[in-house]
C-alpha cells in the first residue's frame, strides 16, 4: 500500500472561485439575505453608525451571500449615472485569512465592478486608515470571528481589538460571525463579547440556516457536532453522502487520491497534533505506515492551498482549509483526542496540541483549560465540515480508534 503519491491529475475547475462568485445561483434564503444587506446599507447610508451581523453554521454560504451583496453595492457605488443613496460610497471587504484573500482577489479580477484593492486584511486596513486619518463608508468583514481581540505586535496590530477599531473607521459595518470557528486566544470571541462592542450602535442580526456545503442528511451534521462536544453517537445511516471510518490512514489516503482523480478537490486533513514549524523546511504527519508532509506555507502562491493540484500530496491544516470547500475529506484525528471508556466520551488534551500559538495571549480568559478545549473543538469542527460529498475519518488514539471501528461495524 502506498503512503505517498506522484502529482495527481489537475483538479476539475476552480470550485471555490465558482462557489463565491457574485453570479453564482442563490437559494431563496440566500437571495433574501443579500437583499436584506443591501437594503440595510441603503437605509443607514446617511447615518453615523450601523452594524449588521450575519450568523450561520459552517457551510451555509455566508461568504457567498456577503460577496454577492458587496458586489451589488460596489456596482451601485461606481455607477456614474446612479442617483441612489449608495452612489459614490467608499467601501471595502476585509478578511483576516491569507488564503481567503487570494480567493477573493482572484474573483475580483474577473468582474468589472470589483477591484483587487477592494479586498484587504484587517490590520493593513486599520493601519492605513489611521495613518491617513480617513474613514470609509461601508466595511464588510468575512470571518469576523478571526479578528484579533488583543494587541499583536508581531502582526503589526497595536490596538486592543480589531473590530473596535473598524467600528471607528466605518459608518456601516456588515460582518459574518461564527464563534464556533474561533481558533486562537488572541482572537477569542463569544457572542457576549461581540454584543458588548456593538452596544449603542443600531444593530440588526440575520441568520442562514440552510446547509449549502455538506450534501448529507441531517444526521451527519448532528454526529459531527456531537463529536466536537465530546459525545459519540451511532454513526449516520448509509446515504448518498459517503461517510466512512478507517483503521488505516494510508488506506484512507489511497481512497482520497482515487476520489481526487475521479472528481477533484479531495484532500487529507489532520488536527494540529503533529509538529509543524514555519522555518522553510518540510514537516510530516506520521501514523502507522502513513507518512506525508504538512501543507507548505506559500504566501506568494497565486492559488489557495485547497486549489493547488499538488496539495493532494500534502496534509491540510485548519488554517489552510477554513472557508473552503472540498468534495471529499480524509481527516486524521491526532493524539490530542482520546476516548474515556468509563464516561464514553471523547477527551481533548491541550498538552498534546501542537499549535501552542493558539493558546498564547489568554490573559483575560478566566477558565483557561475550558477555553483551550473549546479552541481545539472549534478547529475540529472546521476540518470536519469541509467536504460536500464524503467524509473519511481515522483516529490515532488506540482507544478512540477502537470505539470508532466498533461503531463502524455496528452500522454494518
From TrEMBL:
TM stretches of this protein: none
Lineage: superkingdom: Bacteria
Matching Gene3D superfamilies: P-loop containing nucleotide triphosphate hydrolases (3.40.50.300)
Domain Schlafen group 3-like DNA/RNA helicase span(s) in chain numbering: 51-397
Residue ranges, annotated region (Disordered): 1-23
Pfam families registered for this protein in UniProt: SLFN-g3_helicase
Name the record gives this protein: DUF2075 domain-containing protein
Amino acid at each position: 500500500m502506498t503512503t505517498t503519491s506522484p502529482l495527481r491529475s489537475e483538479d476539475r475547475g476552480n470550485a471555490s472561485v465558482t462557489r463565491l462568485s457574485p453570479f453564482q445561483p442563490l437559494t431563496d434564503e440566500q437571495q433574501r439575505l443579500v437583499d436584506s444587506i443591501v437594503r440595510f446599507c441603503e437605509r443607514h447610508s446617511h447615518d453615523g453608525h450601523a452594524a449588521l451581523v450575519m450568523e450561520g453554521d459552517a457551510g451555509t454560504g455566508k461568504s457567498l451571500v456577503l460577496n454577492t451583496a458587496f458586489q451589488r453595492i460596489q456596482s451601485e457605488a461606481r455607477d456614474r449615472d446612479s442617483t441612489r443613496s449608495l452612489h459614490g460610497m467608499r467601501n471595502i471587504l476585509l478578511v483576516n485569512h491569507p488564503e481567503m484573500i487570494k480567493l477573493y482577489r482572484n474573483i475580483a479580477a474577473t468582474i468589472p465592478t470589483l477591484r483587487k484593492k477592494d479586498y484587504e486584511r484587517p490590520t493593513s486596513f486599520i493601519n492605513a486608515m489611521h495613518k491617513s486619518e480617513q474613514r470609509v463608508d461601508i466595511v464588510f468583514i468575512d470571518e469576523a470571528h478571526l479578528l484579533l481581540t488583543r494587541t499583536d505586535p508581531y502582526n503589526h496590530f497595536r490596538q486592543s481589538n480589531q473590530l473596535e477599531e473598524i467600528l471607528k473607521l466605518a459608518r456601516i459595518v456588515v460582518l459574518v460571525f461564527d464563534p464556533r470557528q474561533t481558533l486562537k486566544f488572541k482572537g477569542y470571541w463569544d457572542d457576549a463579547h461581540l454584543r458588548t462592542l456593538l452596544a449603542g450602535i443600531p444593530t440588526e442580526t440575520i441568520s442562514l440556516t440552510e446547509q449549502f456545503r455538506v450534501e448529507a442528511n441531517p444526521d451527519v451534521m448532528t454526529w459531527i457536532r456531537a463529536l466536537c462536544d465530546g459525545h459519540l453517537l451511532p454513526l449516520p445511516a448509509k446515504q448518498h453522502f459517503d461517510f466512512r471510518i478507517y483503521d488505516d490512514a494510508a488506506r484512507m489516503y489511497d481512497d482520497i487520491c482515487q476520489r481526487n482523480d475521479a472528481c477533484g478537490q479531495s484532500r487529507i486533513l489532520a488536527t494540529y497534533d503533529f509538529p509543524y514549524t514555519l522555518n522553510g523546511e518540510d514537516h510530516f504527519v506520521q501514523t502507522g505506515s502513513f507518512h506525508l508532509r504538512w501543507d507548505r506555507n506559500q504566501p506568494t502562491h497565486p492559488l489557495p492551498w485547497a486549489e493547488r493540484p499538488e496539495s493532494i500530496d500534502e496534509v491540510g491544516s485548519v488554517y489552510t482549509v477554513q472557508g473552503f470547500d472540498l468534495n471529499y475529506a480524509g481527516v486524521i484525528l491526532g493524539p490530542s483526542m482520546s476516548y474515556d471508556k468509563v464516561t464514553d466520551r471523547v477527551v481533548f488534551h491541550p498538552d498534546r496540541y501542537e499549535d501552542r500559538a493558539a493558546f498564547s495571549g489568554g490573559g483575560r480568559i478566566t477558565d483557561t483549560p475550558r477555553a483551550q478545549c473549546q479552541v481545539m473543538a472549534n478547529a475540529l469542527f472546521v476540518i470536519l465540515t469541509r467536504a460536500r460529498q464524503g467524509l473519511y475519518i481515522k483516529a490515532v488514539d488506540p482507544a478512540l480508534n477502537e470505539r470508532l471501528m466498533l461503531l463502524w461495524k455496528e452500522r454494518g
